[in-house]
Give the backbone structure.
Amino acid sequence: MKTLILTTAALALSAGAALAESHAQTVRLGTEGAYPPYNFLNDAGEVDGFEREVGDELCARAELTCEWVTNDWDSIIPNLVSGNYDTILAGMSITDERDEVIDFTQNYYPPAASAYAAPSEDVDLTGGVVSAQATTIQAGHVADSGAALLEFATPDEAVAAVRNGEADAIFADKDFLVPIVEASGGELVFVGDDVPLGGGLGVGLRESDGALRDTLDAAIQSMKDDGSLNELIVKWFGEDAQTFE
Amino acid sequence: MFASCADPETLSGLSWLTCYLTTGKHIAFYWAFGTVLLLLAVTAPVALLFGFGGAVAARSRLAPLSWLGKGYIAVVRGVPDIAFFLFFVIALDQGIEWLRHKAKCPDWDQPIRQGNDFIVCAEAKMPLSTSAQWVHEVYGFWLAVFTFALVFGAFAANVLYGAMRAVPRPQIETAEAYGMNRAQVFRRVIVPQMWVYALPGLSNLWMVLIKASPLLFLLGVEDIVYWARELGSTKTPQFTAYPHGDWRMWYFLFLLVFYLGFTRISEIVLDRVMLRLTHGQATLGSHKRTGPIGMNKAGPP
């Protein structure tokens, strides 16, 4: 009964909120919040990072009211299609497999390199144990490479597995690994060549949300045209980062 | 939080720790303890209510009602908690939205399921996508409470069903001999006396409920497990003023101590309740009571 009363109260509240803000379209942006520099929670517990700035700018240009929501990587696509939020900005590479389930805008980050990091240079990348975050393109690549794949729910756990010797190396986006390798003081080094994977990062949307995709596509294009997207890329990923022409 | 925390790099030792432990993220972590306690405080009585309803229904002489009660007990007890949580919350959420959709948008002509997508009109969203994030969080919390209550209610129903049958037959016969009808016997004799038989089972359930609260994390509520994992993970200097290594072990150790302390306090309280309930009754549960002697002894000492 109590549940019922409070659900009713919640209902009444949300109805009131809806009346107050009925003009502006609200878009809920889903992200993981555990993948710096793309997205992470800062010390104040707010979503921060490259995608936070890109997302806020896209919303400003498209005149949308936006709200950030964090969700586990594992269930980030299921919760998008069931309508808990409207977009995914979570360092998600555009791939054919994902495109079958959801839609993507054009990329807001160019196709980037993935890299291996390990405690020493002489690890066996094709015959050893390699950790990666579950259901990422990197995990798919490791599975195809012949190495034993060790999957983790968060990228941080995949790094921790290398540190404690559970895995020989980690395979992840190079942009994610650079700050970690730098901060490790020589404990971790990059091994082997960089591997280009995926078609860049795009905003994930429900397939039925064509209008929102066109709006965001246009906003991304305008950010590419006036160079502001490149500025953000340089700000978060350094001078050497790949930018749009 | 404190003015001295403006530049954490200059701090060391205890002052660093003080600043570190009072970041916005840590405050959210502490609030999450409140969330868990609130969940337990609300779920326990609601589950008991569900359990009571289930037990009464299962005992009913009306066959359909009895099937309903027994079906509820059997189905929910038989499905693994995790499977139930993952299925039921999504199904409940979509069910509510579907009902609201039917009521609010009668002239919507597109299908609700388009491929993988579940689409209802904007007015039927629950909560509305225009509402603030905290409304979404409150809604998610109540979905979790309802799901927990439903699951633990089924177990409580089974416990109470058994407890009602454990009330000694002579008590009921005596009541009947005084001319009480079935409802009166139930209200005046069975319910007051069943608690002592139900308490061991219910206290067990309470312990399991405490231990099951990290399942909140599965339901997307940012509970203490979520924050412990997030706060404990390695932090590199570029993205935080308080870089540190992999501290998950310490955060989880803290959770371990919290849960252990909480269950211990529960045990002590439940023991007291047991003493109170067995007051004046000749049961094995009252053997260690220290109150007025003599009232509870059935035979010679």
About this structure: Chain B touches chain A through 54 residues (CB under 8 Å). The two ends of chain B are 63 Å apart (CA to CA). Chain B is about 65% helix and 0% strand.
